[in-house]
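seq as requested:
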Amino acid sequence: MARIILTLFYFTIFLPFGFVVSLFSDLLDMKDLTPSWLERKTGDLTLEDARRLW
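struct tokens:
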């Protein structure tokens, strides 16, 4: 009986609350971030450049 009560409690309280929070809030503050990718300029690489890593 407790398993049924806890299951109903989960589906009537926690699941809708989590759904509403995920729709209307940004917990990680990621919506207004700009991408931080940098354009990589490789130039003309040769096979010798690939062999010499440092």
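The CA atoms of residues 28 and 52 lie 41 Å apart.
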